């Protein structure tokens, strides 16, 4: 069986429509690999293209000391190879990558198990997702008893769930709450995400919970495609935690999109406390892969 030609093209030379068609035609295709999302959030990137866009693989990169290395951009959880291909191409893909980058970090999406098994320096990571195709009552029946008890408490606190809140306010709240952890580069990444949402508003949505007095208690910024809602940013104030505001936000978001044939993508996490919170919603685990590239030697 002949292996299709492999090209590594700069973003400016990529046919954006053909690229996105390839991503959209694969059931495992994710918004992270869409052309304009990459263009907004990567410092620079090339794309590995198999044949006539039968399969594609983004390669975000930077350079240090004349060495080009792969890196994982902020707000992009999973990349990898997407489209239609045979495992026969894996050795040639590695050869092509070896010529382009010498080391770095990347991720392979949840549909790349076979590719991950062919590589070295792979670590599995957990993501959590919740299918929303059932009605809300059916989805809610999968919630943990403790979560249901907390929702009963939250329902008595006069919390307000609002749609399409100011994205800049949400990002500002994030910096205020987690400012000690935010580096200059992260602020630049947030600015890039905001610009993407301004340019492509139909791909972004915001949801917040306010107290009865109007105070912002919890907020979320998500991006979306035809298959998924991706939970990128989530903030909760001290008062919000006491009032179970983030629990209520997620509860009402799930109610809003129940029956929609979407998947709510919680974006991880490997942190025990965060994992415990997400598991209360009856999520399923989806494995993706961290790849530490090292083509030296």
Summarize the topology.
Blueprint: E1 6-10, H1 16-25, H2 35-41, E2 45-50, E3 55-64, E4 67-70, E5 82-83, H3 90-100, E6 103-108, H4 113-117, E7 122-131, H5 136-140, H6 145-154, E8 160-163, H7 167-178, H8 184-199, E9 204-210, E10 216-224, E11 228-236, H9 238-242, H10 245-257, E12 263-265, H11 272-279, E13 284-294
Parallel strand pairs: 4-6, 11-12
Antiparallel strand pairs: 1-2, 2-3, 3-4, 3-5, 6-13, 7-12, 7-13, 8-9, 9-10, 10-11
Helix pairs in contact: 2-8, 6-10, 7-8
Please characterize this protein's 3D structure.
34% of the residues lie in helices and 29% in strands. It is globular and about 65 Å long. The chain has helices at residues 16-25, 35-41, 90-100, 113-117, 136-140, 145-154, 167-178, 184-199, 238-242, 245-257, 272-279; strands at residues 6-10, 45-50, 55-64, 67-70, 82-83, 103-108, 122-131, 160-163, 204-210, 216-224, 228-236, 263-265, 284-294. Strands 1, 2, 3, 4, 5, 6, 7, 8, 9, 10, 11, 12 and 13 form a 13-stranded mixed sheet that branches. A hairpin with a 5-residue loop joins strand 9 and strand 10 (216-224).
């Amino acid at each position: 069986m002949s292996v299709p030609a492999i090209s590594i093209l700069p973003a400016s030379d990529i046919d954006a429509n053909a690229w996105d068609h390839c991503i959209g035609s694969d059931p495992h295709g994710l918004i992270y690999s869409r052309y304009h999302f990459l263009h907004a959030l990567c410092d620079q990137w090339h794309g590995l293209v198999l044949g006539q866009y039968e399969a594609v693989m983004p390669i975000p990169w930077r350079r240090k000391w004349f060495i080009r290395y792969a890196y994982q951009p902020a707000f992009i959880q999973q990349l990898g190879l997407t489209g239609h291909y045979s495992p026969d191409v894996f050795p040639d893909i590695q050869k092509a990558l070896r010529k382009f980058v010498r080391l770095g970090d990347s991720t392979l999406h949840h549909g790349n198990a076979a590719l991950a098994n062919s590589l070295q320096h792979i670590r599995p990571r957990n993501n959590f997702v919740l299918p929303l195709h059932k009605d809300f009552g059916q989805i809610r029946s999968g919630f943990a008893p403790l979560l249901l008890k907390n929702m009963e408490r939250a329902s008595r606190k006069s919390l307000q769930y609002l749609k399409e809140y100011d994205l800049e306010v949400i990002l500002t709240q994030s910096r205020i709450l987690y400012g000690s952890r935010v580096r200059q580069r992260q602020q630049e990444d947030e600015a890039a995400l905001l610009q993407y949402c301004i340019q492509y508003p139909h791909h972004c949505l915001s949801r917040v919970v306010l107290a009865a007095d109007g105070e912002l208690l919890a907020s979320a910024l998500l991006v979306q495609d035809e298959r998924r809602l991706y939970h990128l940013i989530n903030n909760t104030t001290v008062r919000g935690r006491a009032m179970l505001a983030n629990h209520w936000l997620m509860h009402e978001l799930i109610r809003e999109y129940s029956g929609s044939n979407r998947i709510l993508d919680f974006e991880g996490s490997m942190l025990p406390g965060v994992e415990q919170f997400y598991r209360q919603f009856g999520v399923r685990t989806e494995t993706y892969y961290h790849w530490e590239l090292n083509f030296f030697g």
